[in-house]
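Continuing the batch. This is chain 6 of the set; chains 1 through 5 are on the previous pages. Same settings as before, nothing changed between runs. Recording input and output for traceability.
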Amino acid sequence: MLVSHAWLREWVSPKIGIRELAERLTLGGLEVAAVADAGPSLHKKRVIIGQIIRNDPHPGAPHNRGDHGKLRVCEVNVGRRAPLTIVCGAANAAVGGKVAVATVGAKLPALKGEVQARRIAGIESAGMICSADELGLEENSEGVMLFDDAAPVGASVGDYLDLSDPVLELELTPNRGDCLGILGVAREVSALTGAKMAAPKFAACNPTSKARLPVDLQAPRDCPRYAGRALRNVDMSARTPDWMAERLRRSGVRSLNVVVDVTNYVMLELGQPMHAFDMDKLAGGIVVRMAKAREKLRLLDGSRVTLNRDNLVIADHKKAVALAGIMGGQHSAISDSTRHIYFESAFFPASAMLGKARQFGMHTDASHRFERGADPAMQVTAMERATQLLVSLAGGEPGPITDACARHFMPRPAKITFNRAEIARILGVSVPGNKVGALLKRLGMRVTPTATPTATSTATTAGWKVVVPGWRSDITGEHDLVEEVAKVVGFEQIAPRAPSATATTGGHPESRIEIARIKQTLVERGYFEAITYSFVDPEIQHALLGARGIKVRNPIADNMAAMRRSLWPGLLEAVRSNLNRRHERVRLFESGQVFLPGRAERGSVRKEVHRLAAAATGPALPTQWGEPARAVDFFDIKGDLLALLDLPRQPGLAFHPAEHPALHPGRSAQIKLGKDAIGYLGQLHPGHQQRVDIDQPVYLFELDLPPLMRAALPRFSAVSRYPAVRRDLAVVVDAGVAAQDVLDTARAAAGGLLTHLELFDIYAGERIEKNQKSFAFRLTFQSESSNLTAREVDAKTDKIVAMLRRQLGARLRT
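Output for chain 6:
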């Protein structure tokens, strides 16, 4: 939001300078990002206002140029004894026009050097008649810059336009839609400085015509109020005055024509967007309704949009003529031939407007304001102000205002019981009750003190009943009122105090593993933590997981239109970003919520699950001389995962071969805790690797966090007095048999005497048959009550071999 300092001073004029004002606004929550002059510094005596007193065709100019390219010889009165002769090619440089003249020696923003006298096709030109872009006031412009007839000849252009006026650039937070107009900013300045508001006064315009259009509110929930007014016989040839065009320019709005400029001016002044229709192009009357399915509308910017039943439109009795709160339609647009216009000033709740413009890739001044909350009581006031301005500038016969209002759907002002004690509790300081009431009133609130009797039968202020004005829809509770009091008092005036807390013991069970310890384990193994968006590309997610996520009703962008069901999409985007920046070795992890949709047929509800995921790609180890370089593989990331799984030391954790839509077949595993599946591990499927534009293998894991955060408590176990006995076994199985299945079967057959089981070798080669492999593992037996005999150990070993043969088809390797 760009705010002209001079314009703001017309509404409220505190006795402080621009720098202090900017600081007060910033400390009050309206951050001033920059303060800059309204325009470039132009030489006072050499860039001046002149009047064209003669305009003749250039006798030496070529005749094959277009009408807009023909050179003219102009005589320009600049307030000196003799007029200047200047050659100009602009079509709008007409006799009598007041123009900007750069005399010899002037420096212009668009020129590298000074303006020089030079001969053009044989005629000496003593300067330039300048366009707005040559003066540095616009990026592009057509023709020379023209001024009002009352502009003083010979005056400095910079002084006349007041280009030294500071412009404040406000970075407004989304909850402060009330400050998207001079009125709202002036209210804040008044509240923060104590200066009284002196807003320009304007009276209601009495109708001089009976022209009106009926208004039918068919969608009152999305548009509970619509004000309209007809104005007949408007002079579209009228010129927007310099003061208005300049205020529009320094607010970032380009002057178009007198009608559109008036609506934009009122929007910038009062914060209420308006629109003007060519009344002759409206059929019957105004209908505010939801669009029909596949209804088409061509907008003012030339784009053609296809609407759906969720889009609110302004229509006449035949078709849609505007996309409500966003942009008008081309069919009913104002043009030079327009004679009768119809003003629109409506209220669209923020809840009805959020994301509607983004559906069509648009963001307009109107949608920006409605999405942040417009004042529900400003429509008729804005209509009267626009009427007053337009009639004074372009004439016209105003009709009566039609104010259609569905009061049942209009927002009601918030009523808050404000306890005085809340101020001291939240801020840590006390503010006198009379000062609090005065502060709240300066913010436009209706305040009624509530009192309680004391022991001496007098009364003291215990709090206030506060009615919040409609333009402050962001204030909903006592905490908001405390913030308002604090910002007006001044946060810098509140002395910092250290928080106090009561020391307590315990708090967490001994079996709980903190998330910080889990993260630190991964950091120690070379991983970096990533934080990605909860919104992901629905197509990428569907491809990776084989299922779609919860749709976002108003997505920020098309590639953020679904809630994530997995942490992998975000992590893969982060991996790609790092690889594109030439980081060859990437190790990333993330912990966060995933959002799982419920199944309607089962009556289940949506739920959030806390998960941990990691991704690794590139070299297995940093570059070094002690080990040969190799790429990370499945077992590297499995080792990292095992370091995590070792934290809780829960029995029953195992890996089983399993397929997953995101993972490479044969290079993936399911992680189980007992019978419960808690996650997956594996290599990203090559097809998905290509889809996400990564050109090297990526290994991933993801698992639910709660099992990692519940540790098995240590239990006392006596150390056996008797020696342990070890046996090594090597069995041959089919190539498709997993090591985990062999170990699980051996452990089940061994019984309680088996204290340790360790796989130490896997072999597949010439010494065994094709499509088979050998597992060698070490068994450790130990008894707590006696020495184990060779016969007992052999019996256990035979039982294990028999079980492996029966269940897995294993045989001893010879």
